[in-house]
Amino acid sequence: MFSSRLSLRIPPVICLGLIRSAARLERRTYLMTTMKVFRCPGRHGYAVEASPFLPNRLACAASQYYGITGSGSLFVLDQTEIGIVLVRSWQWGDGLFDVAWSEANEHVLVAGGGDGSLQLWDSANQNAPLKVAKEHTQEVYSVDWSQTRAENLIASGSWDRSVKVWDQNLGRSLATLRGHEGVVYSSIWSPHIPGCIASASGDGTLRVWDVKAAACRLAVPAHKAEILSCDWCKYDQNLVATGSVDCSVCVWDLRNVTQPVSQLLGHSYAIRRVKFSPFSRTVLASCSYDFTVRFWDFGRRLPLLDTVEHHSEFVCGLDFNLHIPHQVVDCSWDETVKIYSPSCLTAAS
User: Fold this and answer.
1) What SS3 string covers the chain?
2) What would the pLDDT profile of 288-315 be if each residue is shown by its tens digit?
3) pLDDT tens figures, 54-98
């Protein structure tokens, strides 16, 4: 288990270390409003998500020993006027790699673990998880809660190359989607189309699934390297972004996938997560193993809006606050969660 996690989670070139000169660390090209920081010593952040209900609440999934071995932690946090405070935390026997809030209950969230499990947690209950489901045979690297009306379903993506669909109570899985030939790193519900999931894999493909038919409707050879993340545009049901180990973000129109609508270049190492803005059709963010978060507007001739360098390790988690325009939250292997509003977004509002 140790060797497989090490080889898959960290590209070999990155294992040699990311060398940063003092000059580059000092070269800041952005201005931000007050940044808030939460420190979680001994826990390395993998995923963070803002609450769909409460403007100041967020959750972070983190792992001990960089997720290679050891246990995991799930944090529920609130931002205040002066910082970030811990509301609730739980420990799990293996690393935790993703977290998603329920779209129907403001207290409930689901996490994915290195032991192949999904756990359902209640922020109003300090006790053990409400439910644990363990059908995946390898690490669960992605969890997502459906946002479409009349659906209350969870999707999970695993290193066992499958995507599974669950009801809100984590009973027996409702469907298993097979077709990827590599690790599934990301599985995201369409915010527009009921029963539709996009998934990204180490096989270099982006796939779109019809859950009711348990069938792949579209397979896009999106990159010639592993794809670690994908996300749907909130304003256009046909647009999906992918982030890859090849250091590029690609935006795809699913009606014509012969070439991307836009290819966004600038990161120097693998892109760990991509997120579309909930406030603009063409704005998205990406975070990377190069320690940066970058903001893009692919509707512009020069799409790179800004590069934020405020972490000293891999940046793995990233989200936009749905309630506070242009507020961003991220988390890193440097044991911090940060909340901030990049000036490139606030200036354009």
Assistant:
1) CHHHHHHHHCCHHHHCCCCCCHHHHHCCCCCECCCEEEECCCCEEEEEEECCCCCCEEEEEEEHHHHCCCCEEEEEEEECCCCEEEEEEEEECCCEEEEEECCCCCCEEEEEECCCCEEEEECCCCCCCCEEECCCCCCEEEEEECCCCCCCEEEEEECCCEEEEEECCCCCCCEEEECCCCCEEEEEECCCCCCEEEEEECCCCEEEEECCCCEEEEEECCCCCCEEEEEECCCCCCEEEEEECCCEEEEEECCECCCCCEEEECCCCCEEEEEECCCCCCEEEEEECCCCEEEEECCCCCCEEEEECCCCCCEEEEEECCCCCCCEEEEECCCEEEEECEHHHHCCC
2) 999 999 999 999 999 999 999 999 999 9
3) 999 999 999 999 999 999 999 999 999 999 999 999 999 999 999
